[in-house]
């Protein structure tokens, strides 16, 4: 229905499409987070560790997201970079109760930031300090310290604590990302 | 408009294929479009089709390029377009074997396979199984099990078939899916039932008892699917074959009952299976043949075709059964479908008598021009068998073949005719001159270089030995003037052979060859120069070694040895003796396709493929302890040293080197509750031999073959040890039996190992093990292990070349042999040399015959044997003459037979 799409866009009804990548260590809750955004009929009730990646679509208040939900297991992490080039934003998920592997997460983040595809782009990064409900979870502030986010200056970033099981904190993050991406889209137009 | 024009043009030169002339690099460049967002499904679909097209054209794509394209393609998962998605599945399957990290699509495919879109689920399963490696199988197992019993037939079928493919890699996992497969067999869908039965069979295939049960179970509970029935018939037939059983087998009853099935497919399959069985009587065959006979007059061309094709195949084996259908076959001769007609005629030719040959040949010639090459080949094959059946008919048949050679036809067809003429010439002396004349005529106008060179080679071999050799020279020399370089070179070689063999033609051949020295092509000039110089020496021995009998080393081996020599240059000249010899194929490859047998996979001997022995040489060189034994002289064919169906299955291959023998034992552990470690074969050596080293097989798990080697030093024997010869004359005076005893012997063998019991389910072994052993059959080292077969195309010339210096002669009475053929088979088997000049075939009705054998003894000494055999009332007498370049080799061989 190309005509319909065109009409819808002309009327400003059709939402703009953006591509984001969801990365982070395994078991951090990436798939669970994305699942939360999906419409009730497409929701998945049986979440298993991701092998490779999955493409999921969901909508925020004014954007249509295509999310590449990547696998966080060690052997697949080096494949993330295959998808950097086309993405407009990044969601980096941290298991805030997994203090032991916080350094690993930091390492992976640094690799990502140093990647030639991303290094000089001012691409927005949203951090979820996920599993805030867990007993020994650290706060989002502590999390940003552990990851040394304060030194990340050439990209807009935002961190918020979340609980993917209840959805708490998730919308706050995506709203921020939506605003950032709209700015980028606006700039592109000009 | 512009594009329309271009399309039109493409249509003209590409037969309407828009993908013709696609360039790999351009297509892969285009594939980068997949990375663009948003996705344009139409455009991407088109490009992906191109990628698939070039892969299917056999274009080879490098790993890096393929991986890049693959990852680009994974981005198409963003699009929900059904056509594009299904193309992506195909793309994944095609690239899964070439690209890296293909498991990246696992989750995406798993989502589709469990998703709501039924049309995605089947293909997603197939794609998933193509990217799944062994380590990932566990994680998809649950989903596969569910899919097998899915209510959507396409999903269930896809899962079953994929499981079959996975089963090729790891039987273990799919074994656990047997319950699901059982359930799927009960499906109402004909395909699902068929595929499920296929999987069940595959899982149980190695367990004969279980297969037996499977067949008897399903033959009672009537299956819905005719396809499943056909499969069951095939399994049953295979069981009968394996058990070497006949109609007394309960399996046979089942197959026979299928002749009364309501589906034609099943009836045909059953009839086909019965007539192909080995041990059947005329009575067993009768119902199957009558079914086929009925099909011969069916209005459906497929049934007529199937029936006549099957009858054609079994015509030689069961002529009586087929003659019962003669009337029906006669009717089919005029069938509008030419394929059916051809098969009908060739079947009749196979079973007919000598008097019907002329009539049928005439009948065929009326439509030879209307049938395809494939069926023309069937006709040629029929003629080939007629030639050997009715040698007296060779005139009619040769003329017919010559006519066919003149007609239009492709390479395969022409090659078949040429081969047929060549075998006829070789089998039937009387047909020789006519055959050669036809071939001479053919090369006058032959567009196939391969055939022309082959025929020239034949002319060079056979021509000089005909009554008037000179008449062939003109044909051959014409090629030098008119043809391409390859053919010219072959012609030059052929001329040289006439010069070498026929004294009276020597001078004119030299003149012709001298003219060839002015050729524009290097190869042709080189050959001519070489031959002119050898011929001018006028020495028979030289001509024999360098022109008539040629080089006898393995081409692959020579290449490797020369390469090695250039890597480590030395003062010493290159030694041709260090190169392994070209091995003669173990079984005579010329077993002309006996029509009626299941078509044997045709040996493609034309290529310079690495021979079996070259492969062994390579493998042995990989074992550090065996790497420095020198060039491998000979590898025996494998011999079983265990009974079949015992706990362990062991085969022995003997590899002979200059001073050593390596015994290679290929072992299989058939017990699933045992794991063997440090497996060796301990050998009790025969006198003079010495075991140097055992190289154990570290681990032998259930059903995974492993190899252990035993290295044995050969007795330092007279053929090598010249010092000994001078040391004491006694050694030589010693009974000649000494020589044979020093090269032959019997070795007692025991398999030794450490056993660890293990859980048959998981294969998990116990911590501790215990030592155990298992007695194997003795291994014999015979004279044949020390000689390598070498074909001397011109035996007489080689005989003169070696000369009588070390000749030994003796006469033996082989009283326990009752025919010449039997004596010949035994002599060849024992001495292990190559029969030359087709002297292993005794012309019918002869009571005396001469066998010529040739080869090389370990150490590089030529060995020739002439055995004159005569048959009388008391058995066979043999006058054996041995010539060799080494006196001791002669003795070894002369005593071998005694
Ligand atoms: N308590 C708690 N558990 C969570 C939360 N988010 C996810 N989980 C659980 O964490 C586990 C891992 O979640 P996934 O979404 O599969 O993690 P992932 O990051 O996609 O993992 P990979 O695909 O292997 O990279 C699941 O058992 C989730 O139920 C959370 O906010 N709180
Ligand atoms: Mg995940």
From TrEMBL, chain A:
Gene Ontology terms: biological process: cell projection organization
Coiled coil regions in record: none
Location of this chain's protein in the cell: Cell projection, Cilium membrane; Cytoplasm, Cytoskeleton, Cilium axoneme; Cytoplasm, Cytoskeleton, Cilium basal body
Matches recorded under InterPro entries: Arl6, P-loop_NTPase, Small_GTP-bd, Small_GTPase_ARF, Small_GTPase_ARF/SAR
Residues engaged in binding GTP: 24-31, 72, 130-133
Assigned keywords, A-Z: Cell membrane, Cell projection, Cilium biogenesis/degradation, Cytoplasm, Cytoskeleton, GTP-binding, Lipoprotein, Magnesium, Membrane, Metal-binding, Myristate, Nucleotide-binding
Superkingdom of source: Eukaryota
Keyword Cell inner membrane found: no
Pfam name, any one: Arf
Binding site for Mg(2+): 31, 50
Gene Ontology CC, one term: ciliary membrane
Presence of keyword Glycosyltransferase: no
Membrane topology field: Peripheral membrane protein
MF-aspect GO terms: GTP binding; GTPase activity; metal ion binding
UniProt main location, coarse: membrane
PANTHER family referenced in this protein's UniProt entry, alphabetically: ADP RIBOSYLATION FACTOR-RELATED (PTHR11711)
Family recorded in the similarity comment: Belongs to the small GTPase superfamily. Arf family.
Protein name: ADP-ribosylation factor-like protein 6
Gene source species: Biomphalaria pfeifferi (Bloodfluke planorb)
Organism ancestry: Eukaryota, Metazoa, Spiralia, Lophotrochozoa, Mollusca
From TrEMBL, chain B:
Subunit-level organization: Oligomeric complex.
Gene Ontology terms, MF aspect: structural molecule activity
Residues covered by region (Disordered): 1-22
GO biological process, one term: organelle transport along microtubule
Record localization: Cytoplasm; Golgi apparatus membrane; Cytoplasmic vesicle, COPI-coated vesicle membrane
Protein's membrane topology: Peripheral membrane protein
Organism of derivation: Biomphalaria glabrata
GO CC field: COPI vesicle coat; endoplasmic reticulum; endoplasmic reticulum-Golgi intermediate compartment; Golgi membrane
Domain of life of the native organism: Eukaryota
Name assigned to this protein: Coatomer subunit gamma
Entry keyword set: Cytoplasm, Cytoplasmic vesicle, ER-Golgi transport, Golgi apparatus, Membrane, Protein transport, Repeat, Transport
Function as written in the Swiss-Prot or TrEMBL entry: The coatomer is a cytosolic protein complex that binds to dilysine motifs and reversibly associates with Golgi non-clathrin-coated vesicles, which further mediate biosynthetic protein transport from the ER, via the Golgi up to the trans Golgi network. Coatomer complex is required for budding from Golgi membranes, and is essential for the retrograde Golgi-to-ER transport of dilysine-tagged proteins.
Family per similarity comment: Belongs to the COPG family.
Primary location: cytoplasm
Residue ranges annotated for the Clathrin/coatomer adaptor adaptin-like N-terminal domain, each copy included: 23-538
Domain annotation Coatomer gamma subunit appendage Ig-like subdomain: ranges: 616-782
Residues of the signal peptide: none
Stored Pfam families: Adaptin_N (PF01602), Coatomer_g_Cpla (PF16381), COP-gamma_platf (PF08752)
UniProt xrefs under Gene3D superfamilies: Coatomer, gamma subunit, appendage domain, Leucine-rich Repeat Variant, TATA-Binding Protein
Sequence ranges of Basic and acidic residues compositional bias: 1-11
Residue ranges constituting the Coatomer subunit gamma C-terminal domain according to the UniProt record: 784-897
């Amino acid at each position: 229905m190309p005509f319909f799409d065109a009409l819808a866009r002309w009327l400003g009804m059709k939402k703009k499409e953006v591509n984001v990548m969801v990365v982070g260590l395994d078991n951090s809750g990436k798939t669970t987070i994305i699942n939360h955004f999906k419409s009730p009929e497409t929701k998945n009730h049986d979440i298993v560790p991701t092998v490779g990646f999955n493409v999921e679509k969901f909508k925020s208040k004014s954007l249509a997201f295509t999310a590449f939900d990547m696998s966080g297991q060690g052997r697949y992490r080096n494949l993330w970079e295959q998808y950097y080039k086309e993405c407009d934003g990044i969601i980096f998920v941290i298991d805030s109760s997994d203090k032991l592997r916080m350094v690993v997460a930091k390492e992976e983040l640094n690799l990502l930031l140093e990647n030639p595809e991303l290094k000089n782009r001012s691409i927005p990064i949203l951090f979820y300090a996920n599993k805030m409900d867990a007993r020994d979870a650290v706060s989002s502030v502590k999390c940003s310290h552990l990851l040394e986010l304060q030194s990340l200056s050439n990209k807009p970033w935002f961190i918020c604590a979340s609980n993917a099981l209840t959805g708490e904190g998730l919308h706050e993050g995506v709203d921020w990302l939506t605003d950032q991406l709209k700015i980028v889209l606006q700039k592109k137009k000009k | 408009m512009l594009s329309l024009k271009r399309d039109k043009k493409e249509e003209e030169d590409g037969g309407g294929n828009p993908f013709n002339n696609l360039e790999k690099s351009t297509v892969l460049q285009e594939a980068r479009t997949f990375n663009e967002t948003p996705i344009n499904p139409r455009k991407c679909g088109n490009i992906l089709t191109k990628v698939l097209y070039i892969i299917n054209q056999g274009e080879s794509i490098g790993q890096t390029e393929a991986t890049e394209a693959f990852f680009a393609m994974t981005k198409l998962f963003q699009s929900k377009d059904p056509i594009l998605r299904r193309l992506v599945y195909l793309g994944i399957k095609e690239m899964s074997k070439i690209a890296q990290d293909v498991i990246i699509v696992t989750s995406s495919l798993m989502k589709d396979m469990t998703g709501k879109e039924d049309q995605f689920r089947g293909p997603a399963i197939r794609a998933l199984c193509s990217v799944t490696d062994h380590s990932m199988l566990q994680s998809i197992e649950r989903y596969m099990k569910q899919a097998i019993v899915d209510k959507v037939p396409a999903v269930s079928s896809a899962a079953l078939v994929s499981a079959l493919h996975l089963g090729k890699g790891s039987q273990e996992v799919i074994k656990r899916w047997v319950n699901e497969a059982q359930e799927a067999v009960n499906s109402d869908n004909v395909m699902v039932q068929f595929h499920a039965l296929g999987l069940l069979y595959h899982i149980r295939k190695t367990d004969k008892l279980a297969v037996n049960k499977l067949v008897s179970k399903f033959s009672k509970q009537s299956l819905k699917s005719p396809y499943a029935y056909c499969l069951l018939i095939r399994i049953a037939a295979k069981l009968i074959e394996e058990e070497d059983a006949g109609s007394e087998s309960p399996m046979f009853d089942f197959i026979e009952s299928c002749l009364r099935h309501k589906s034609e497919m099943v009836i045909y399959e059953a009839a086909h299976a019965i007539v192909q069985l080995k041990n059947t009587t005329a009575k067993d065959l009768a119902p199957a043949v009558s079914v086929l006979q009925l099909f011969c007059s069916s209005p459906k061309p497929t049934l007529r075709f199937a029936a006549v094709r099957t009858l054609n195949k079994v015509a030689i084996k069961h002529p009586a059964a087929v003659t019962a259908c003669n009337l029906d076959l006669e009717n089919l001769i005029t069938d509008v479908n030419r394929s059916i007609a051809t098969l009908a005629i060739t079947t009749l030719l196979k079973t007919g008598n000598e008097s019907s040959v002329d009539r049928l040949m005439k009948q065929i010639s009326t439509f030879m021009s209307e049938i395809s090459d494939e069926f023309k080949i069937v006709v040629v094959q029929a003629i080939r068998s007629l030639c050997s059946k009715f040698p007296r008919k060779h005139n009619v048949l040769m003329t017919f073949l010559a006519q066919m050679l003149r007609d239009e036809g492709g390479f395969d067809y022409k090659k078949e005719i040429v081969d047929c003429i060549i075998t006829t010439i070789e089998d039937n002396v009387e047909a020789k001159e006519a055959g050669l004349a036809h071939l001479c005529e053919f090369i006058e106008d032959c567009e196939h270089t391969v055939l022309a060179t082959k025929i020239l080679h034949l002319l060079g071999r056979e021509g000089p030995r005909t009554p008037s050799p000179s008449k062939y020279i003109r044909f051959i020399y014409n090629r030098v003037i008119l043809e391409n370089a390859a053919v010219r070179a072959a012609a030059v070689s052929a001329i040289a052979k006439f010069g070498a063999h026929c004294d009276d033609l020597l001078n004119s051949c030299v003149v012709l060859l001298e003219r060839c020295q002015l050729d524009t092509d290097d190869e042709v000039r080189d050959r001519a120069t070489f031959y002119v110089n050898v011929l001018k020496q006028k020495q028979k021995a030289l001509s024999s070694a360098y022109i008539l009998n040629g080089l006898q080393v393995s081409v692959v081996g020579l290449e490797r040895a020369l390469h090695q020599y250039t890597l480590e240059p030395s003062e010493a000249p290159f030694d041709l003796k260090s190169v392994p010899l070209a091995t003669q194929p173990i079984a005579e490859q010329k077993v002309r396709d006996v029509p009626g047998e299941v078509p044997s996979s045709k040996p493609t001997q034309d290529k310079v493929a690495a021979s079996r022995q070259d492969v062994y040489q390579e493998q042995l060189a990989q074992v550090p302890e065996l790497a420095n034994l020198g060039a491998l002289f000979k590898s025996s064919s494998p011999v079983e040293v265990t009974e079949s169906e015992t706990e362990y299955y062991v085969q022995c291959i003997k590899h002979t080197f200059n001073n050593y023998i390596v015994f290679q034992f290929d072992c299989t552990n058939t017990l699933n509750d045992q794991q063997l470690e440090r497996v060796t074969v301990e050998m009790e050596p025969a006198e003079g031999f010495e075991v140097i080293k055992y190289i154990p097989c570290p681990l032998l798990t259930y059903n995974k073959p492993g190899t252990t080697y035993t290295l044995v030093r050969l007795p330092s024997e007279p053929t090598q040890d010249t010092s000994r010869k001078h040391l004491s004359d006694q050694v030589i005076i010693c009974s000649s039996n000494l020589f044979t005893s020093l090269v032959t012997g019997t070795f007692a063998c025991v398999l030794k190992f450490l056993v660890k019991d293990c859980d048959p389910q998981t294969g998990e072994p116990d911590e501790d093990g215990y030592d155990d052993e298992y007695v194997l059959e003795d291994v014999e080292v015979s004279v044949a292990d020390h000689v390598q077969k070498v074909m001397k195309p011109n035996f007489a010339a080689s005989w003169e070349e070696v000369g009588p210096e070390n000749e030994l002669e003796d006469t033996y009475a082989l009283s326990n042999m009752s025919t010449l053929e039997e004596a010949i088979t035994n002599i060849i088997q024992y001495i292990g040399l190559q029969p030359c000049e087709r002297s292993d075939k005794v012309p019918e009705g002869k009571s005396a015959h001469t066998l010529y054998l040739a080869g090389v003894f370990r150490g590089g000494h030529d060995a020739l044997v002439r055995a004159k055999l005569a048959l009388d009332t008391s058995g066979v007498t043999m006058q054996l003459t041995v010539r060799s370049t080494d006196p001791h080799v002669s003795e070894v061989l002369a005593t071998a037979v005694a």
